[in-house]
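User: Teach me something about this protein's shape.
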Amino acid sequence: MLPTVTRAAFLANGNDRTFRLMVHDSLAVVAWFEAICDRFARLIGLTCVHYKILIAVNHCQFEQKVSVCCEAAHLHLSGAFIINETRKLVRFGLRVKEQDPEDGPRLVLRTIPEALNRLAQLAEVQG
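Assistant: First, the predicted structure itself:
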């Protein structure tokens, strides 16, 4: 079988079997985390994406103002995606977006008490 990588550092005994196993194991771990995220989200009536967004904002908002760019970078998602999902969360009554009084065009994102209550419900499950 032809190797899928050619960099010597990724080859052992001239083949990439160990590297491929590491990649496949990594993908399995990611799938496992996604399944956990999905279960937590469903317990509080959210999608996995919305759960991730609310958790990210909730952890960051007490340390700094959270902007679309900050959140997108933190979650490794596009700003356009964050804006679209934020609209949904605003409609669901779980977050607000406000103009930054110190930087007019910049939006500041916050979770609101209903979202915090939902996240708090997970404390027992997350143990």
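Now, about its shape. Residues 45 and 126 are 16 Å apart (CA to CA). The beta strands are 95-100, 103-111. If you'd like, I can walk through any region in more detail.
User: That's plenty for now, thanks!
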